[in-house]
Structures are given as C-alpha cells and as structure tokens.
Design a protein that fits this description.
Elements (H helix, E strand, L loop, with lengths): L1 E3 L4 E3 L7 H4 L26 H16 L8 H13 L3 H29 L3 H4 L3 H18 L9 H8 L4 H15 L1 H18 L2 H24 L12 H22 L7 H20 L7 H27 L7 E2 L2 H10 L3 E6 L4 H10 L3 H7 L3 E6 L6 H9 L7 E5 L17 H11 L1 H7 L1
Parallel strand pairs: 3-5, 4-5
Antiparallel strand pairs: 1-2, 4-6
Length: 448
C-alpha cells in the first residue's frame, strides 16, 4: 500500500519502487518471493517538494532575463513583435504565444531527453569518478559566469539563429533560437539544471521543469511585447547585470557541492554545502561592490546575501546539535546466525551515499533519540551499495529481492522476513517506531 506522509509517498512491499530507483542498482529484478507483481512503470513522487522546486525554477527563469546576454535582446524582441503585428493587438498576442511556444519546445525537449536518459544516472552515480567529474564541470561553468572565461557558441550557429523569418513561424523561430543566442549566459545554468533532471530519471519531471523555466524566461518578453509603451520604464543595462550573472555562478557552485557530497565522509559533505552557502551569501550580499543608481537593488542584494548566510548557519547548527545515531553493524552471515540464536529481530538497511532519501533517513529518522533507544533491542545491519560490483552485496540484493535504495528488510526473531513491514522510501521517526514495535515483542509490549 502507499501511505501519504506529506513530504512524499512511502511505497511498501509489494507495490514497488519509483522507476528511477529500481534502475539505480546493477542487479536484475527477479520475481517477488510472495508471487505478487510489482508495478513496472510507477512514477517518481516528489510531494510538496515539487511546487517549491518549480517556483525556484520559475524565479531562475525570470532572473535569466537580467543576464548580459538576454537583457539587451528585450527591446529588439519587442520591436520585432510590434513590426510584425502592426496595429492589431490580437496578432501581437498570437506572435507572443508563438514565441513562448518556441521556447517551450526547445527547453522541454532538452528536459524530456535528460529525464529519459537519466535512468542510467543511478548506476553511474555509484562511481565517485562520475560524481567528481560532474562537480568539476559545474564548477568550471560557474567560473565562466564569474567572468574567468567566456563560453561562446559557434559563429555559424549563432548567425543562423539570428536570421529573421516572417509570419508566425518567425516568432516561433525566435523562441527556438533564443537558447542559442543567449547560451553564453543561460547555458551554464541550463546544463546544471539538466544534470539535476537526469538524476531524477523522470521524463515528465524534465518536461515540467523546463516548461516552467521557459515560462519564466519568456513571460517578461511576452508581457513587454503586448505593452510596448512601458519599455522605457526598464532599468538601463549596467553592472547590476554582472551581479546577476555572478549569482547564477554561485548557484552552480552549490550544485557542484551537491554532487560531490556523496563521495565525502560525513559531516564534511554537509559542511561543504554550508560553507558554499555562507561564502556565497557574504559575497553576494556584502563583499560584492556592484553599485547602481536605485535603492531597491541594495535591498535585493543584501536580502539574497542574508538567505545564503542563514542557510549556511542553519546547516552548521543542525549538524552541531545532532545527537548520536543508530549503532550500525556490517553484514555477515555469522551475525544473522547469532541474532537467531539470541532471538533478536534484525533490520537490514540497504543504502547508498548518492541516495537522497537514504541520507534523510540517516539524518532524521535514525538520529531520533527514541529510535536510537529502540534499536538497542534489535540487530541493526547496514549494507552500503555505493561501490557496486561487490559479490556479497550482489548476493544480498538478489536474496532479498532489493530493487532500489533505500530498502529496509525486517527479519523477526526466527530470521524470517516480515514482508508487510518492508520499507523502500523515507519514513519519519514515528512510523519507524511503529514498525519496530510490530517487529519486536519487547518493543511492542513497551508501546502498549
């Protein structure tokens, strides 16, 4: 059954895993021991995190309009629409819709392709070399936005994109070509977003993310095109656009830290992200000396800087106050035999460093004081499949029919699996305590 917990759904045996997690392990799926069939194509679930992510992507699309490559195109684009539509307001709106459609086609196609090919990302992300390589690419793209080097498109491709075409197809083509013309500024951000979409392994998620990005990027141009009389109210180009570009660069540095975190021992991965947030906040809000003639920019700069500093301080504080977690043991057949002789139930946690729900389980659920205390009545075993291609791990994955991570296998005091208690996603501490109570006679008596 699927149980709603607010953040995301928790899939219990035998309904199955989100598809991207099933494909993340290099072990072929086998028939479930109980004979129940699993859903072959379930969709990944994002819960309330999805609208938050989409709002952030939309804001990012709006911000891309303020980069030095896109902002100067605004009056050119508005003039183009006005010249094509004449005095007809209706035709002007249709031209704007065609322009937005061109943007959506280009970006959403990229998102769908990234999602479809991202099914391979789970297995690839088991390699520290792949993670380090992705982080290095994102960091290099960030340095481009910091002005250390310029990413340029081939001149021939840029000239083709800049050619004028008539009619509604011309407006559609302008939308298609914007990504090419503005690539030096928006390219690094889009590539970083593609990496995150590929990590999800979901084509529909890729489409939605880049559809929203296209709306954020194209909506201001559309609004200005149908109300061209307000064009003179836009602020003039200046140093503030370079500041926006540097903000995008810091976002890419944060993405690089996100990808490199799994290969760093805890708490260094978390501290790296916290450090990036602190440095970015201080740099964006106070150390950057960009000046403009309007006061609202100063408030915006300090506001974003404060967000980075507060986020970094929160991450460091959360790590500092975190209590001791569950005392995990490495798997061995002898350990299981001893647990059976002592009549102690067993929880086997299949996990991986690149698995976000696994890290959340460890940080939130398995560091809860009540869960830690209850775990002392059980034998807690951790199987970390990050490395991949380890014979023991492959045997255990097949033996327990593990199709993705995280997976919590519950064995009773007789060493038999309680299939109805199996968990294959994040569960909060309260739910974990209930499951432990169902597994252990001692804990169940205490709960009663």
């Amino acid at each position: 059954m699927a149980v709603g917990l607010g953040y995301e759904r928790v899939y219990r045996y035998p309904e199955g895993f989100p598809d991207w997690r099933e494909r993340s392990l290099p072990v072929a799926s086998t028939t479930v021991a109980s004979g129940a069939e699993q859903d072959a194509t379930p969709m990944p679930v994002f819960g309330w995190a999805l609208p938050i992510a989409l709002v952030a992507v939309f804001v990012g699309g709006l911000a891309l309009n303020l980069t030095p490559c896109v902002y100067p195109l605004i009056p050119i684009t508005v003039s183009y629409f006005g010249g094509r539509a004449g005095k007809s307001k209706g035709r002007l709106v249709v031209h704007g819709i065609c322009y937005l459609a061109g943007l959506v086609i280009t970006n959403s196609t990229l998102g769908v392709v990234a999602g479809l090919t991202g099914g391979m990302m789970g297995a690839l992300l088991q390699s520290p070399f792949v993670l380090a390589g992705m982080a290095a690419i994102l960091f290099a793209l960030a340095t481009s936005l910091f002005g250390l080097w310029e990413m340029r498109m081939p001149s021939g491709l840029t000239q083709v994109a800049a050619r004028s075409h008539g009619g509604y197809f011309g407006s559609l083509f302008m939308g298609l070509a914007l990504g090419v013309v503005a690539a030096p500024c928006i390219g690094p951000f889009v590539i970083g977003l593609l990496a995150l979409v590929a990590n999800s392994g979901s084509a529909w998620f890729g489409f939605v993310v880049f559809f929203v990005l296209s709306l954020g990027l194209g909506l201001p141009l559309f609004v200005l095109a149908i109300s061209s009389g307000r064009l003179d109210r836009l602020p003039r180009s200046g140093e503030w656009m370079l500041w926006v570009r540097r903000v995008m660069g810091w976002l890419l540095v944060g993405m690089a830290a996100y990808f490199v975190r799994p290969i760093l021992p805890e708490p260094f991965g978390l501290l790296l992200i916290a450090t990036v947030a602190l440095v970015a906040g201080a740099r964006i809000g106070w150390l950057d000396r960009t000046e403009t003639g309007f006061r609202s920019f100063a408030w915006l700069r300090r506001g974003l800087g404060a967000v980075g500093v507060v986020l970094g301080a929160h991450l460091i504080t959360a790590w500092a106050v975190m209590g001791p977690g569950v005392d995990w043991q490495h798997y061995s057949d002898e350990l299981l035999v001893r647990a059976g002789e002592e009549g102690r139930p067993v929880i086997i946690d299949f996990s991986a460093a690149w698995c976000t729900p696994c890290r959340r389980l460890e940080a939130d659920t398995f560091h809860d004081s009540k869960v830690v205390e209850a775990s002392k009545e059980l034998v807690m075993i951790k199987v970390d499949v990050t490395g991949g291609d380890i014979p023991l791990h492959d045997r255990l994955l097949r033996q327990y029919d593990v199709r993705g991570v995280p997976t919590l296998v519950m064995l009773d005091d007789q060493g038999k699996e309680r299939h109805e208690l199996r968990v294959v996603d994040f569960v909060p501490a309260e739910e974990m305590l209930r499951l432990m109570g169902e597994l252990s006679v001692v804990l169940k008596g205490e709960q009663l």
